[in-house]
């Protein structure tokens, strides 16, 4: 991904961006990216921001992927090792 540095951001704009980020419950960087996408027409202003963490698939061909059923089966199998032995941690 590319990075861009913005210079000469006046205090009023910086304050407004921080307020907007706080209002949206997002980081300042994510807020600025969202506003830029809206301003350039990549997404409509009325569209909600995609929620949840971004999902990358560029290494799937190396590591493979699991189906939902495989992941659920794995979670069931290792359920016992996720328990903390309270006596051991005293």
Distance between the termini: 46 Å
* Percentage of residues in strands: under 5%
The main β sheet shows up as: none
Q: Specify the number of helices.
A: 4
Q: Please tell me the overall pLDDT.
A: 86
Give me the strand/helix succession.
HHHH
What is the domain tally? 1
* Uncertain ranges: none
Strand tally: 0
What gross morphology would you assign?
Answer: elongated
> Structural class, judged by helices and strands?
mainly alpha
User: Radius of gyration from the CA trace?
Assistant: 21 Å
Percent helix, as a range, is 40-55%
Report on this structure.
By secondary structure, this protein is mainly alpha-helical. The protein has one domain (11-82). It is 44% helix and 0% strand. Helix 1 packs across helix 2. The chain is elongated and about 55 Å long.
Sum this structure up briefly:
The protein has four helices and no strands.
